[in-house]
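task queued by scheduler; priority normal; single chain, no ligands, no partner chains; default sampling; output format set to structure tokens
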Amino acid sequence: MSSAGHVMDMIQRSRYNDSIRKKRIERISKIRDAYQEEVRKKHPIGTHEVKLSSEKLIAIKQRIRLQLIREKRIKRIISSLLTVIIAGCIYYFVINRLHVF
């Protein structure tokens, strides 16, 4: 094959690959659109709105605040216990083992 034939063959393969790629992209976009339409039909966005009285809303907010406070307390307790344990290990392994005192 001459160099011109080789170049024409490369151009043909490139065009063929582009056409295959375009078909694949179109097929994927059709599938994606159909899927998104099905999802929108089953689960419409922003149509479900909950009406709460002010008393219930305040109660929910207080319950959330109390839960956050409890979680912070638990984290503090765990971190302080770990600090004590690490300090005890350091004391045992460093000071007690080396007989510094």
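post-processing summary
- The chain has two domains: 1-48, 50-101.
- The mean pLDDT is 86.
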